[in-house]
Write a structure and sequence with these properties.
This protein has 417 residues and is an all-alpha fold. Helix content is 76%, strand content 0%. The radius of gyration is 20 Å and the shape is globular. Mean pLDDT is 81; it is low at 397-416.
Length: 417
């Protein structure tokens, strides 16, 4: 898929995803170390703050989508950019716990506004592109995913370079990127998008809460998301132990993004031809559990140095492969479990419930990492979480309903910005 063949609006949205993730991933990978060392937070509080960031984004994803439906894409995206700029600047200067919490909430809520607005419009425009004879809509959505992962690849590398100055510089440069994104959208994003109706979203919570199959899927997906969050909590601690600094962390995170950029589409195609949705999720969760077990098995030896980073690299590879299986399968499963006409609500609820699990689980993980237990114990307990989640998966698949791409688009990992 050639970016130049897309409409000006689609090009803007795809490049927006690239810029979003460059700015975001410049900062997030180095936040845990900054909070522990520079701010002086306890381990449990660092974990809670990181979980709070995820929850303020994932938990409010449904709110951002509803606001975009009600008021349109442009005002929601612009508001999200303004909040992200304010959050990064505040985070750069925050020196006390309450200030850090406030900044992190702004950073997370900003993404809860602009991510669903941008992703839903990309999906809708992909349908328009297909109907105009531009090729399958899936190619547009795949390009959007690759742009996000490219940003997630570049961001940590830039952040690592800027960290040689200080963390505040990293935050301010990240804010500067969002200033450029804001200016581009003020100038280029239309006030009114043709064919997009503004609607009022109501109801549906009661049936959702009684939908046991959907709720257990949320729990399983939350276990995956908690495991993924360890890239920013448990992994930095292990890198610091093995290498004596955070420098290799950027390269490990870049490895994860590079794997997704190069392998996500082939893996999805291969899995789709061979495994059911449930089997795909189960296999992905098993790979994630194995990744934690690899580090746990190596820790008793207590090795340090470059070679000691190999188990961490193995963890990143297995976690990323698991992510490639779990995330698309979970999103594809939601339409089978949702009530007719409530797919948006159920998609947002998947993010909200999993975000709450991450909030609680990250605080527990921070406590485990900070209690002086043998180093392998937290990693073994973390391995047990995705392993146990396999048993939670709904018992059998049902045939997928065909629908509009705007309804069924998968939230790519890049949307964590």
């Amino acid at each position: 898929m050639n970016l130049l063949r897309l409409s000006p609006l689609l090009r803007l949205l795809v490049l927006t995803q690239l810029a979003f993730n460059i700015g975001f991933f410049m900062v997030l990978p180095f936040l845990a170390e900054h909070l522990g060392r520079a701010v002086g937070m306890a381990g449990w509080l660092v974990g809670f703050v990181l979980g709070l960031r995820t929850f303020s984004q994932q938990g409010l994803f449904v709110v951002g989508g509803a606001l975009a439906d009600r008021y349109g894409v442009r005002p929601v995206v612009l508001a999200g950019c303004v909040l992200r700029i304010a959050g990064f600047v505040w985070l750069g200067y925050a020196g006390q716990a309450w200030a850090v919490v406030g900044a992190v909430l702004l950073v997370g809520f900003a993404a809860a506004l602009f991510s669903p607005a941008v992703e839903s419009e990309v999906a809708r425009q992909a349908v328009v592109h297909e109907e105009a004879g531009g090729g399958p809509r899936t190619r547009v959505l795949a390009l959007f995913t690759v742009a996000g992962q490219a940003g997630a690849f570049v961001g940590p590398l830039l952040g690592a370079l800027l960290l040689s100055v200080d963390f505040r510089t990293v935050c301010l440069v990240g804010a500067g990127i969002f200033v450029l994104v804001l200016a581009a959208h003020v100038r280029l994003l239309p006030q009114h998008l043709s064919g997009r109706e503004r609607v009022q979203v109501r109801g549906g919570i009661g049936p959702l809460l009684r939908n046991r199959r959907f709720l257990v899927l949320c729990c399983a997906y939350g276990a995956y998301l908690l495991a993924y969050n360890q890239l920013y909590l448990a992994l930095p601690a292990e890198v610091e132990r093995a290498a004596g600094s955070q420098a290799p962390l950027a390269w490990l995170l870049a490895l994860s993004s590079l794997l997704v950029v190069t392998a996500q589409l082939p893996v999805t195609r291969w899995v789709g031809e061979r495994l059911s949705t449930r089997c795909s999720m189960a296999a992905g969760l098993a790979l994630i559990a194995a990744g934690f077990a690899v580090v746990a098995a190596a820790l008793p030896a207590g090795r340090t140095g470059t070679a000691a980073l190999l188990p961490a690299a193995g963890f990143v590879v297995l976690l990323t492969l698991g992510q490639m299986l779990v995330a698309p399968a979970a999103r594809a499963w939601v339409p089978d479990l949702a009530e007719d006409g409530r797919l948006g609500l159920y998609t947002g609820a998947l993010s909200s419930v999993s975000g709450l699990i991450v909030l609680l689980g990250s605080a527990a993980t921070g406590t485990l990492l900070d209690t002086g237990l043998p180093p392998a114990v937290p990693w073994l307990l973390l391995a047990a979480v995705p392993a146990a989640a396999i048993a939670l998966l709904p018992g059998r698949d049902r045939p997928h309903r065909r629908g509009n791409a705007a309804d069924t688009a998968v939230e790519a990992p890049s949307a964590r910005s």
